[in-house]
Amino acid sequence: MCNYENKTDKKALFELAKALKHFYNLDNMKMHPGDLHTAGVAEKLVRGIIEDNGYTASYLKRRGTRLFRFRR
């Protein structure tokens, strides 16, 4: 029997949000165009998971990673 939930746990979303800061660091690095495209797709997938659960992620150097709930 599967043990799937209807919504992703906020702790899991926060861990995904923390991974987004590493994509910001890739902007200044030299990368093969194909690798750069693949990294962009991966970033969009992670953002999509977070946004599909009603949150948006923000990273600021001084404040760290934060999750904000969408207002409905």
Task: Write the topology of this structure.
Elements: H1 10-25, H2 33-52, E1 55-60, E2 64-69
Helix pairs in contact: 1-2
Counting DSSP H or I runs of 4 or more residues, the number of helices is 2
Strand/helix succession = HHEE
Helix amount, in percent? 40-55%
Oligomer type: single chain
Overall geometry comes to globular
Number of strands: 2
- Terminal-residue CA separation: 34 Å
| Overall mean pLDDT | 87
How would you briefly describe this protein structure?
The chain has helices at 10-25, 33-52, and strands at residues 55-60, 64-69. It has 72 residues and is of the alpha+beta class.
Describe the fold and architecture.
With 72 residues, the protein is an alpha+beta fold. It has one domain. Helices cover 50% and strands 17% of the residues. It has two helices and two strands. It has helices spanning 10-25, 33-52, and strands at residues 55-60, 64-69. The chain has a two-stranded antiparallel ribbon with strand order 1-2. The termini are far apart. The mean pLDDT is 87.
Name some characteristics of this structure:
72 residues; alpha+beta; 17% strand
